[in-house]
Amino acid sequence: MAEIIPFRALHYNPGLVGDLSNVVTQPYDKISPEMQARYYGLSPYNLARIIRRRPGGGGADADYQGAADDFRDWIGRGVLVSDGQPALYVYHQEYEVPGRPGDRRTRRGFIGLCRLEDYGARIVHRHEETLSGPKADRLELLKATRAHFGQIFLLYSDPEGRIERELGTPSAANPWERVEDEYGTVHSVWRLADASSMARIAGMMGEKKLLIADGHHRYETALAYRDRCRGQGGDARAEYVMATLVRMETDGLTILPTHRVVHGLAGFDWTAFGADAGRFFEVQAVQAAGPASAWVAAFAARLAEAGSERPALGAYAGPGRLALLRLRADADLTGVLATVLADVPAGQRRLDVVLLHRLILQGALGIDRHAVREERNLRYVRELRAAAELVESGAADICFFMNATPMEAVRDNAFAGDPLPQKSTDFYPKLLSGLAAYWLDNPAGT
């Protein structure tokens, strides 16, 4: 089903750039203006100068041609060099789970090229809906540079771990690349160029369905570029995209929640909100003294416990207005609630992120799906404390604290063809950009 092939990765020349940590970056959509400025200051060859080109980093202000000029200049100077032969690249990430001191894990995968498939072929499956703006931005950069700088994060099922065994246990003392990022995650890469091993891995991957964990916008951008090339006579290299593939059963896979911050509401009223939410949720006021830093950890633990029984989320609209919302025990999925959720797939009707979007954002606050897609009243924040502090600062009306979406729900809905709302998951840690690139014009070949 899935076609995975080796390639000659374009990579940084350590003899010219020195410390790899000065040139690699987090994925483009995770680079804040502050991070962008810091990356620019680290090195004249930092990848942010291409994937988040100043001044705006995207949209009308983006300098796509300037990014392409720098990219080709770096290749000409030998800053970026091509691997000598096609390979797969074993990729390990050693990290500590945020908010759980001492909980260290290793996520194991490998980097290769994946043949692009339309979703209708049911080989590559999305698990979230996407936004139009990021796809337009990434398409312009791809057209200008003809290169993929970040990896699509793909998951495959392999309960027996056959593919991981074939990848082997690389020597920790001798990686091809190793770098520690700003969050303390250690990224290690080893080349696997043995033809027989690569052939066996490709054969086993040919039996798999793939699930996009991260990189939906970049995958759909690659599809659009492939179709554009087909319309111009075809380009065999544009039929593929660079990806990191990870076994979904691994104990190194971590999904974090993404909290919702709502702003720009006209006449928001906490009491009226509680009454509206009470149609389907038990609304329990929670006493929390002091600023968010004093109570968020305890509330997160309480929310996790409540969510183990039935869908639950937290709502915070400033000091004295904190509540735990749990789906009512008597909620009738065949009665009124079923009518409200009539167009929601059965496998999503008890997911807290879906209930938040449909019953709270849309039903209680009047933020329709179009406004959500355009992010008119909504921001997404990883840290619970940061979400609460936006409310306390007056930058938001209310925020909603979430539990993580279970991997099983992500998998089952994706394979059923039922994507979840945007930002339903936060797979941690992110794949670094700059460890490898797929250059469609590589004169050495694919």
Describe this structure in words.
The chain is α+β, with helices and mostly antiparallel strands and 446 residues long. The protein folds into 2 domains: 4-255 and 428-439, no CATH class; 258-403, no CATH class. 31% of the residues lie in helices and 22% in strands. The chain contains 15 helices and 21 strands. The protein has helices at residues 14-17, 33-42, 48-51, 64-77, 132-145, 162-167, 195-205, 216-231, 270-277, 296-307, 336-340, 352-364, 369-373, 384-392, 407-415, and strands spanning 4-5, 10-12, 80-82, 88-96, 104-115, 124-125, 147-148, 152-156, 177-180, 186-192, 210-214, 240-247, 254-256, 259-262, 281-285, 312-316, 322-327, 378-381, 398-401, 426-428, 438-439. Strands 1, 4, 5, 6, 8, 9, 10, 11 and 12 form a 9-stranded mixed β-sheet that branches. Helix 4 crosses helix 5. The mean pLDDT is 93.
In summary, what is this structure?
This protein has 446 residues and is of the alpha+beta class.
β-strand percent reads 15-25%
The total domain count is: 2
Instruction: Tell me the helix content.
Output: 25-40%
Mean pLDDT: 93
- Radius of gyration, in angstroms, nearest whole number: 23 Å
Number of strands: 21
Uncertain stretches: none
Biggest β-sheet, characterized?
9 strands, mixed
Please give the alpha-carbon distance between the first and last residues. Answer: 21 Å
Shape: globular
Please, how many helices? 15
Counting helices, strands and paired strands, the structural category is alpha+beta
